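Table S2 (text version). Query chain:
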Amino acid sequence: METAHLIAFNLTLLAAIASPGPSLLYLIRTALAHGRGTGVAAACGLAVMAALWTLAALMGLDVLFRLFPWAFGLMKTAGAAYLIWLAVKTWRGARDPIGQARTPSRHGAFLGGMAINLANPKSVLFAAAVILVIFPQGLTPSEKGLIFLNHLCVELIVQPAIALAMSATVLRTRYLRLKPVFDRVAAAVLGALGLRLLTDRWTPASF
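Corresponding structure-token output:
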């Protein structure tokens, strides 16, 4: 493994982090609604789970999913249900004043971030595909550990940076003014992503 492989991997990670999806949406909304500390805690939860998916791919969890498609299907269904539940909760609370809504603890925000990324088992297949394309075969245990730590470091730098940017006073003030609209758009997107995850016919074998 060479430095060029890690650079290519990191560029792919940055593109994946910035791509629209439930994790980015959750992070932005949490930072806007609940402020800097809660947003950073959510970002750390997202970061840890994303890196753990890569570790799972390095350890061969994608192979387990291919051997036992029912396990993959079970995780996919549970993940879709969580996203739909979150969408319903967000929609119902769209008109609640921000002071009326309970601000999650930082520990709760961290676990929420982990749950959002855990809700998409396709992440381990994506990680496996990226690793297969970018890195040479026959990685040693130490190289796999380096890839995992590299991923974790990138996530722990970029995700909190997004949370800090989104919790800026100007953006937060505008969010509070448009909270019902923003929350209902967020709920619709989360619900659509959950339904798509639930109804998609892709399997580990077709990824």
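Notes on Table S2: The CA atoms of residues 45 and 110 lie 4 Å apart. The first helix runs from residue 3 to 18.
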